[in-house]
Amino acid sequence: MSNVAIRNLSIQLGGNTVIESLDLDVKAGEFVVLLGPSGCGKSTLLHSIAGLIDSSGGQIEISGEDMTWADPKDRGIALVFQSYALYPTMNVERNMSFGLRINGTPKHEIGRRVARAADMLQLGPLLKRKPASLSGGQRQRVAIGRAIVREAEVMLFDEPLSNLDTKLRTELRRELKQLHRQLGATMIYVTHDQVEAMTLAQRIAVMKAGVVQQFDTPENIYNRPANLFVASFLGSPGMNLFRGWLEERAGRIEFRNEHLCLDVMHYPFKLPVSPGQQCVLGVRPECIETGRGDGSDKLLYAHVSLVEAMGAHRVLWMDFFGTQIAGIVQDQQSVEVDHPVAFTIRTQRISLFDADTEQRL
Amino acid sequence: MLPLTEETDEAPRASADGVRSAAVSDTANGVRAAPVGTPLAVSALRSARSPARRSLAWTPARLGVYGFLLTAALFFLLPLYVMLVTSLKPMEEIHLGTLFALPLHATFEPWRQAWQSACTGLECNGIRAGFWNSVAIVVPSTVLSILVGAVNGYALSFWRPRGAGLLFGILMLGAFIPAQVMIYPLVRALAFIHLFSSLPGIVLIHTVFGMPVMTLLFRNYYASLPMELFKAARIDGGGFWRIFVELMLPMSTPVIVVAAIMQITGIWNDFLLGLVFADADHLPMTVQLNNIINTTTGERLYNVNMAATILTSMVPLTLYFISGRWFVRGIASGAVKG
User: Fold this and answer.
1) Cα–Cα–Cα angle for B164, A60, A189, rounded to 5 degrees
2) CB contacts, 8 Å: A85 with chain B
3) Region for B194 from its dihedrals, namely left if φ exceeds 0, alpha if ψ lies in -120 to 50, beta otherwise
4) In the structure, what pLDDT confidence band is assigned to residue B191 with cuts at 50, 70 and 90?
């Protein structure tokens, strides 16, 4: 198993700096997801790890060896593309064995590896078919199979599921997770789909404009976002944000604005704060509890403007003094559009950000 | 803009007309065919919206279209008809001056003469030697120029070496300079490497002159393939030649067919380069044809000349009949796009 260490990496494409002095440490056998909006440089980063894009500075180490200028084939990596990139003139078997045949791997070894990959991905009956006669899901399985037969220690995925429909995507996502457990290879996976990121990753690196914003476990990324960008990029519906300031009252710290007053006494501040500091309060929709509550929290009132039924739960859009906020209703509680509703904010999982630096407090 | 012969220019035009007239007749009968292209789909829609217009099939505009098409077809077919008819007549009938009449006593003797015993200068062995010379020139030239073009196009679109754009620009410049300008320097150059006036010499010349268009054709084709395919092959460890031979060439069948048609017809129809660069033993059929027609011993044998001409144009003609569809497809997909 190999670790991947990226040190101070810079990449320029066509005169534009896409990535500037980026550091990233992926442990051996880890499943890391690079998540970010399109154009944030996540695919560029992946392709530079694969050796398809030259870096303009910095270092890429794979299992302790400097691979910054190594040829793609010598890096011990395999890459699965979004567009599958299957060789159209070769059948499934030859597609998977192409790399091995180039290496001069012995015939029986090629046969063994292809059979193993086909077995893992249920490709057995399709081995003699050409890519054109396969469905999208089957093609992506073949592309993954082609990566498996290389028995690479680092497997890279470039948005492999984004061309598939929702049902297939969920299915293949599960298979990928299984595969990671079976193979134990280091996996780096690029996506813009937060559900994929949350479900697959052991750690997620959220990227924006070529900079890693936060690199942490899915739980921490979701519950303790490092800044406003991460907070608002993850979650559907997004985090509710309230602008306000901090006040100290009778030995307690409170978040306040014109319509809201929240005791943040138990909030684990990372940075030193001062009374009167401008900040932004972030509340996940599931932390907004409608109804009377148990009386321990302060009741707030808003106007229901829209109810979205999602099956398992309902999303409640409310008008709170001119700002739209979202809450999630789990039970059969009756909520009606255009009626006022009482709610409380559960303070255990709130986030506070500095209004200027947008960093977590 | 491409150095094509007259015939290569006509083929796509003729079949484009064919498509258009098919569209016209479809709507005339009120048949709504599957929409092949926008004009057809639009006209089908229009006819569906106003059923009253269907009965008025023979509008002046439509008559005009048919009239034009028929005139154009006649204009191009009449010379062929005269050639065919004349080649089948004995000389006595030709002397009567009935140019358009069918032969009274059809004979294949002029064809036999043209093939076996017509005089090209001092020798009287017919045009068959020229036929085999042309084959000997066309086959290696076509294969070589396609190979060179394919490798060039592959390197330019996937490997993108430093200065690829400039290189391609210079190559394209070559396509726009008239061949006549380069003849004398090329004669000197070939003489210097002792290839002037030989079969390898003329093959080399055709390969060089075919290079710009072939490179353009293959470059555009490869540029339309997804880059990720190439990247995947690079990760699989493929080198320059391995990726070319095992991945790109097998995928290039459509463009190879187009390139082969262009090169075969172009080189077969070439007169000037063959005249200048081939030696007396390897003169192509076109040059031999010219010699037959210009060699007169007494009476000018119109029927033999006509037969020899048809024989010479038989190869490109057959090729068009077999592969016209491919040719149009190629023109539409790759050659013009750049």
Assistant:
1) 90
2) 226, 228-229, 231-232
3) left
4) very high
- For B237, the closest of A52, A81, A103 (CB atoms) is A103
DSSP labels, A203-241? EEEEEETTEEEEEE-HHHHHHS-SBHHHHHHSSSSPPEE
Q: In A, residues 95-134, which contact B (CB 8 Å cutoff)?
A: 98-99, 102-103
pLDDT in tens, A33-87: 999 998 888 999 999 999 998 888 889 999 888 988 988 888 889 999 988 899 9
**Fold of the domain built from segment(s) B128-335:** MetI-like fold (1.10.3720)
**A81 with B237: Cβ contact below 8 A:** no
Distance CA A305, CA A212 (A): 37
Cis previous bond, A237, omega within 30: yes
A147-A151-A155 Cα angle (round to 5): 50
Helix or strand holding residue A306 (H, E): strand A300-309
- Are A73 and B236 in contact (CB < 8 Å)? yes
Determine contact, residues A128/A92, Cβ cutoff 8 Å.
Answer: yes
Report domain extents, chain B.
6-107, 128-335
- ipTM surpassing 0.90: no
What chain B residue is nearest to A103 in terms of C-alpha separation? Answer: B237
Closest CA to B121 of B333, B278, B292: B292
- Whether residues B236 and A99 touch (CB distance < 8 A) is answered with yes
Q: Which amino acid is at A202?
A: Q
pLDDT at residue A324 is higher than 80: yes
Cα gap A131→A126, rounded to integer Å: 10
Which has more confidence, B331 or A353? A353
Beta carbons of B264 and B316 less than 8 angstroms apart: yes
Q: Residue A4 and residue A68: Cα distance in Å, rounded?
A: 11
Domains of chain A: 4-228 (3.40.50.300), 240-354 (2.40.50.140)
Q: How far is CA A101 from CA A36, A79, A88, A106, A182, in A?
A: 37, 17, 17, 8, 25
Residue A111, pLDDT > 80, answer: yes
**Mean pLDDT, residues B311-329 taken together:** 82
At B201, give phi and psi (nearest 5°). Answer: -60, -50
Contacts of A25 (CB under 8 A, 6+ apart): A3, A4, A5, A6
State how far the alpha carbon of A93 is from the alpha carbons of A137, A184, B214, B229, in Å.
17, 24, 33, 17
Q: Tell me if residue B331 falls in helix, strand or coil.
A: helix
CB contact under 8 A, A72 and B234: yes
B76 Cβ contact list (under 8 Å, min separation 6): B10, B14
Distance of CA A114 to the CA centre of its chain: 31
Q: How far apart are CA B61 and CA B72, in angstroms?
A: 16
If pLDDT is split at 50, 70 and 90, which confidence band does B74 have?
very high
User: How far apart (Å, rounded) are the C-alpha atoms in residues A36 and A13?
Assistant: 19
B242: left (phi over 0), alpha (psi -120 to 50) or beta: alpha
Q: Report CA-CA distances (Å) from A46 to A6, A148, A156, A320.
A: 11, 18, 7, 43
DSSP, collapsed to helix, strand or coil, labels residue A199 as helix
